Amino acid sequence: MKRLRPVVAAASLLLAAGSALAQDAPVTVKLGAQNGSGETGTATFTPQGNKTEVVLQLAGAPAAAQPAHIHEGSCAKLNPTPKYPLQNVVNGKSTTVLDMPIKQVMAAGAVNVHKSTQDLKTYVACGDLKSHM
Length: 133
Description:
CATH topology: Immunoglobulin-like
Oligomer: single chain
Low-confidence stretches: 6-22
CATH superfamily: Superoxide dismutase, copper/zinc binding domain
Helix content: 10-25%
Structural class: alpha+beta
Shape: globular
Strand content: over 45%
Strand order of the largest sheet: 5-4-7-8-1-2-3-6
């Protein structure tokens, strides 16, 4: 029984190291079209120490600015009040660096994109975050 203790301890260290490495890897979330927009794409979350870079890329997006946020809830049941603002999507792309670790960002719920600055109530793309934690 005493011989197993070092093996169990080593296995525990490997599992902990694997979890730490997994948290350092970028996470890509698919963004699905909503409300017949035809806009689909990805949101890539890249850890940068205690910060997280969020890059949105959408196909079928207009040239005009489209607000984007991270909300609590899910795409099916989104809290309408944004939790974290992201840079507007322009020509299908947005890059934001959030001042928080990736684990905190991913726990929020969902990332979504609005039709325009004039039409915030219409969502055109969304992706659930919690399923990627």
